Amino acid sequence: MTRTILTYGVLAGIALEALFLGTMTLGLGHGTLAMAVGFLSMIAGMGFVFAGVKRYRDEQLGGVIRFLPAWGLGTAMALIAALFYVAGWEAYLAATGYAYVDAIVAMGYPDYGDPLSRLPMTFMEISPVVLLVPLISALLLKNSRFLPARPAA
Fold this sequence. Notes:
single chain; mainly alpha
């Protein structure tokens, strides 16, 4: 189980970072469209959480998984991916000379300049996705008839 969590958590994290960098290069700014594209990319990146739970269900448990184990497995993967997201955001800020931080602080949010405040704020950005994707994955995959395992040919 640990190997599955780490593998799919890291894959989801890498996907999140790739999609994050892709959306940042679009130059959408920080408006409503940028937020929508950002959340859609978070959901797409978390697709590896669904895939990881399904693979574990099919290969390790014979095609059957209960809700709580599926939810716990998915949540662990999503938390690893969220750590990648937070680390990626910090790396982006460092690469851009913290210009975004300076702009946010100038707008009246002085706590954003402190990493101990900024890191939890960044984690809160992705937390709805971290909570919802494993929940939806567990609700769907607890039904063994939903995307049943195919025997190897």
